[in-house]
């Protein structure tokens, strides 16, 4: 709470110092720009504060403001496979390669996306999980995946089930007409890497301002040590692990010796 | 309650330490009771609680290495293992493990690893389970009728005994060709690396029924083979696939060695044919569980995997 308050004051300070402008400007600040994965990591909740900056020359918006915050994790190449029944058992048969699927994709807004903007605008700004754009690799060439593709639907469903994709239409709360807070859930299985935040300000169904920033998720301490050694020095790691197994086995036989 | 959650660095998810310890103790109990590694129980359990199958298979090899080492030391002290036979089995076992890890990597890249693990479990566990139950029931009936049966049928030679390159194993008091010994070692090493099991429940009956090894040295000798193939599989899985989770393996081991002590004690109060029947039922149950999963339509037909390893 103390951290959140500091951020809030920070945003207000930025606001106070901002130069005069005619159109709205969007200013945001995140509660934590570096999420650390330690041995007791069970996920995290980040808070993004944002302010719509206007001045006397800015036109009045009768419909008020809407905000959509999109957070996307490092993009990954993935294989999506579909099971089919072959001789009575379920076997992976068809598969597709998506080269740029976000590992994590969370969209938050202050009300249902359909009420904020029409489909054309949402498609243009890739707003909403249903507007996710991915490319597939087939026969050596890259092409965009159609929206009604079953494999694309499978990707979204699987990622949503893992808690890595989500769309929350109550994630953003306006504290005053010009000041909002957005909640960004980071599940424990979120991969490490750089996460991009794209906050869009909507008024009357169009995007009028945008603010981008980023944060990172890193493994630290013991977790990082183990992961790095396992990956960069596989043989050494294997020998050490096997050695640990022998040591534990030996201790057990000594401790529980019955004669 | 939150404090007992620990983040596994390779599996990349948090798990409950007490749950893992409990699983280690339970499987350790079973393994101590029957003198097997218990991998065929541990791997499915880990998959069930959400550990990625590939990480589960690779990490369980480490866990089995620990439990079979402590077991092997105990049998060594009592002189209940045959070092010469173990060495010959190992010659095949090392090659088999290498081939198994290679196939594991290949199947994983083709997306057919899970189905292979599933099918292997159904086939192997189903067959071995049914055989063990049949044998256990026959033995119990014989016991009820007051008959005794010599486990070692000295004169009964099969085609296995006609093979060349014969070697005499003094401790086991058998004179047998090296070919079936190598072959058995190879099969166990291979199956163990692919399925994440030590193969003790396969090896023990093979040694008894194919090679006619006396029961008093069977378990100790099988543990030596399991120990070396599993330690080797750990190193190979760590080198090629980077999937061994040392933290996961450590928690399982600690639970496992404790559970094994209670299992060994419990086993002394049960007659051996009843033990075999129980193990058969357990093996069959795990096999049926896998069969069920293969046949019943999954609630999600799609699956996802990262390109280029974990």
Textual characterization of the structure:
The complex is a heterodimer of chains A (259) and B (310). By secondary structure, chain A is of the alpha+beta class. In chain A, the strands form three sheets. A six-stranded mixed beta sheet of chain A has the order 2-14-13-4-7-10. A four-stranded antiparallel beta sheet of chain A has the order 1-3-12-11, covered by helices on one side. The radius of gyration of chain A is 24 Å and the shape is globular. In chain A, 28% of the residues lie in helices and 42% in strands. Chain B has ten helices and five strands. Chain B has helices at residues 17-34, 39-48, 53-77, 83-110, 113-144, 178-195, 200-209, 215-240, 246-267, 272-295; strands at residues 5-8, 13-16, 166-169, 174-177, 302-306. Strand 5 of chain A pairs antiparallel with strand 5 of chain B.
Write a brief caption for the model.
The complex is a heterodimer of chains A (259) and B (310). Chain A is built from 6 helices and 14 strands. Chain A has 259 residues and is α+β, with helices and mostly antiparallel strands.
Mean pLDDT metric of chain A: 87
The total beta strand count of chain B reads 5
Largest sheet: number of strands, sense, barrel closure of chain B: 2 strands, antiparallel
Mean pLDDT of chain B: 84
How helix-rich are the residues of chain A, as a percent range? 25-40%
Beta-strand residue percentage of chain B? 5-15%
Shape category of chain B: globular
Strand order of the largest sheet of chain A: 2-14-13-4-7-10
Structural features:
heterodimer, A: 259 residues, alpha+beta, six-stranded mixed sheet, four-stranded antiparallel sheet, 42% strand, B: 310 residues, mainly alpha, two-stranded antiparallel ribbon, globular
């Amino acid at each position: 709470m103390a951290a959140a308050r500091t951020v809030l004051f920070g945003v207000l300070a930025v606001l106070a110092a901002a130069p005069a402008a005619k159109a709205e400007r969007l200013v945001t600040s995140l509660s934590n720009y570096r999420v650390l994965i330690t041995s007791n990591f069970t996920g995290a909740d980040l808070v993004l504060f944002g302010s719509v900056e206007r001045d006397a020359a800015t036109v009045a918006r009768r419909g008020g403001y809407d905000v959509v915050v999109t957070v996307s994790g490092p993009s990954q190449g993935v294989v999506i496979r579909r099971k089919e029944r072959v001789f009575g058992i379920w076997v992976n048969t068809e598969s597709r390669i998506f080269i740029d699927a976000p590992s994590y994709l969370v969209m938050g807004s202050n009300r249902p996306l359909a009420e904020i903007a029409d489909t054309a605008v949402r498609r243009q700004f890739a707003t909403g999980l249903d507007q996710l754009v991915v490319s597939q690799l087939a026969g050596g060439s890259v092409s965009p995946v159609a929206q009604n593709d079953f494999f694309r639907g499978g990707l979204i469903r699987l990622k949503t089930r893992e808690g890595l994709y989500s769309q929350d239409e109550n994630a953003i709360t306006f504290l005053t007409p010009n000041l909002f807070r957005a909640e960004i859930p980071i599940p424990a299985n979120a991969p490490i890497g750089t996460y991009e935040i794209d906050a869009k300000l909507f008024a009357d169904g169009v995007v009028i301002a945008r603010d981008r920033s980023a944060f990172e998720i890193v493994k630290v301490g013991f977790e990082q040590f183990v992961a790095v050694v396992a990956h960069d020095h596989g043989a050494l790691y294997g020998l050490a692990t096997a050695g640990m197994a022998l040591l534990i086995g030996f201790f057990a036989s000594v401790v529980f010796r019955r004669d | 309650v939150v404090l007992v959650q620990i983040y596994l660095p390779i599996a990349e998810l948090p798990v409950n330490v007490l749950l893992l310890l409990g699983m280690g103790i339970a499987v350790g109990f079973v393994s101590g009771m029957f003198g097997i590694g218990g991998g065929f129980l541990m791997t499915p359990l880990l998959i069930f609680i959400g550990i990625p199958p590939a990480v589960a298979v690779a990490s369980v090899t480490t866990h089995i290495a620990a439990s079979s080492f402590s077991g092997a030391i105990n049998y060594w002290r009592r002189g209940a293992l045959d070092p010469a036979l173990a060495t010959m089995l190992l010659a095949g076992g090392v090659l088999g493990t290498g081939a198994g890890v290679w196939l594991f990597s290949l199947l994983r890249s083709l997306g057919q690893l899970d189905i292979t693990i599933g099918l292997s479990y159904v086939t192997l566990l189903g067959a071995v389970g049914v055989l063990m139950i049949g044998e256990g029931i026959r033995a119990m009936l014989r016991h009820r009728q007051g008959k005794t049966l010599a486990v070692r049928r000295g004169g009964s030679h099969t085609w296995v005994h006609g093979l060349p390159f014969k070697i005499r194993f003094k401790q086991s008091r058998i004179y047998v060709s090296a070919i079936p010994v190598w072959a058995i070692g190879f099969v166990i090493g291979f199956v163990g690396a692919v399925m994440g099991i030590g193969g003790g429940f396969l090896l023990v009956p093979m040694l008894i029924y194919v090679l006619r090894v006396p029961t008093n040295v069977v378990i100790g000798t099988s543990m030596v083979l399991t120990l070396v193939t599993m330690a080797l599989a750990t190193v190979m899985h760590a080198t090629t696939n980077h999937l061994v989770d040392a933290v996961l393996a450590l928690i399982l081991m600690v639970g496992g060695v404790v559970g094994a002590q209670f299992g060994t004690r419990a086993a002394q109060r049960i007659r051996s044919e009843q033990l075999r029947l129980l193990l058969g039922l357990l093996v069959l149950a795990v096999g049926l569980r896998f069969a069920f999963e293969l046949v019943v339509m999954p609630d999600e037909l799609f699956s996802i995997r990262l390109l280029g390893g974990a």
